[in-house]
């Protein structure tokens, strides 16, 4: 399974912000849409990611306030990315090794979407469920002559 398979199921809704967006506005957007990340774009290029991790760190560092901070000051400005052709097992390894929950999906310089750890886990569970059903059907329909030949 590839990242492109996850994106087909997930859909193409994508939320982006600019680095100069107020952090408080980004938090409002994330809360309103129940999302854990925003892709930060500037002049058509990916320049960062904002996740709840950066927000929590900012709250911690500022005594519980985000103040007048912009996304540029708190975003991850070197986010890990993948491509639509990246294998899901490689994505799992990347996410675990780098301790990230969200990966922008890039095809050359174009943003194709974002996948989350949840998206990957859901896809793997569904794929395993399908394989299990196919194996059970295969075993149930085992030809009798092959059983006798054993």
UniProtKB/TrEMBL annotation:
Gene3D superfamilies in the record:
CBS-domain (3.10.580.10)
Alphabetized CDD domains for the sequence: CBS_pair_bac_euk (cd04623)
What are the CBS domain coordinates in residue numbering? Answer: 6-66, 75-130
Which UniProt keyword terms apply here? Answer: CBS domain
Q: Which InterPro entries match?
A: CBS_dom (IPR000644), CBS_dom_sf (IPR046342), CBSX3_CBS_dom (IPR044725), Diverse_CBS-Domain (IPR051257)
Q: Which Pfam families match?
A: CBS
Keyword Nuclease among UniProt keywords: no
What top-level branch of life does the organism fall under? Bacteria
PROSITE patterns tied to this protein: CBS
Full protein name:
XRE family transcriptional regulator
Per the UniProt record, the source organism is: Caballeronia glebae
């Amino acid at each position: 399974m590839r990242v492109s398979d996850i994106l087909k199921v997930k859909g193409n809704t994508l939320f982006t912000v600019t680095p100069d967006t107020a952090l408080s506005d980004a938090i409002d957007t994330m809360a309103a849409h129940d999302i854990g990340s925003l892709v930060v774009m500037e002049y058509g290029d990916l320049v960062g990611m904002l996740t709840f991790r950066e927000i929590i760190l900012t709250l911690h560092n500022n005594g519980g306030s985000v103040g007048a901070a912009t996304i540029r000051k708190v975003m991850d400005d070197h986010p890990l990315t993948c491509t639509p052709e990246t294998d899901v097992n490689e994505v799992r390894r990347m996410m675990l090794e780098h301790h990230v929950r969200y990966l922008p999906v890039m095809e050359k310089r174009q943003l194709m979407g974002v996948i989350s750890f949840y998206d990957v886990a859901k896809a793997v569970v569904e794929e395993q469920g399908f394989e299990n059903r196919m194996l059970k059907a295969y075993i149930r329909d085992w030809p009798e002559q092959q059983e006798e030949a054993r």
